[in-house]
Amino acid sequence: MYAAIWRALPGPWPVKLVLALVLLAGIAYLLIFHLYPWIMQEFFPTPDPVLDASAHLTPQGIA
């Protein structure tokens, strides 16, 4: 698979190396900043941190 990608990239090997690194960095960026946060929001929701409005906080604790 990597050989097929390497052959598909244009230019001599230094240009191919730069293009391959740019592609790798772009894929890593998309995964880290877009796909993984979306997966965490959709499939692993965090509980709502808001306290119950009927509870009153006093110096002795919640009344």
TrEMBL record:
The chain crosses the membrane at residues 17-36. The keyword Transmembrane helix applies. It comes from the Bacteria. Keywords: Membrane, Transmembrane, Transmembrane helix. The keyword Transmembrane helix applies. This is DUF4175 domain-containing protein.
